[in-house]
Design a protein that fits this description.
By secondary structure, this protein is mainly beta. It contains no helices and 9 strands. Helices cover 0% and strands 38% of the residues.
């Protein structure tokens, strides 16, 4: 059944966890949310389930999250600290929502 306007389409993806990454650490494709290369250390890759849920244990620290779309890295959240920054604290659970919006219509 096709997804209609206003509905959320969640799909299975591999989530790439890198050390905290800034724009100086990537090869950005034009001025988009796509990257051809990430030049920081890959920490791990985890696959989400069919609903888009993923869970991973990480050491305390700062990380960046990406997924791959059509062979390119994608990440659409940025702040002054980096690209899709996630801060992991000792003995705490962090909840992250990764919206894939590049084909979305609003």
């Amino acid at each position: 059944m096709p997804v209609g306007r206003g509905e959320i389409c969640q799909v299975k993806r591999k989530v790439y966890v890198y050390e905290l990454t800034t724009f100086s650490d990537v090869e950005q494709i034009d001025y988009t949310s796509f990257f051809s290369a990430i030049n920081t250390k890959l920490v791990t890759i985890v696959e989400s389930d069919n609903e888009g849920f993923f869970q991973i244990e990480l050491e305390p620290g700062n990380y960046s999250l990406f997924v791959k779309e059509d062979g390119k890295f994608y990440s659409n959240l940025f702040d002054s600290n980096g690209i899709f920054p996630v801060y992991i604290e000792l003995d705490k659970v962090s909840e992250v929502r990764f919206d894939i919006t590049y084909k979305a219509t609003f």
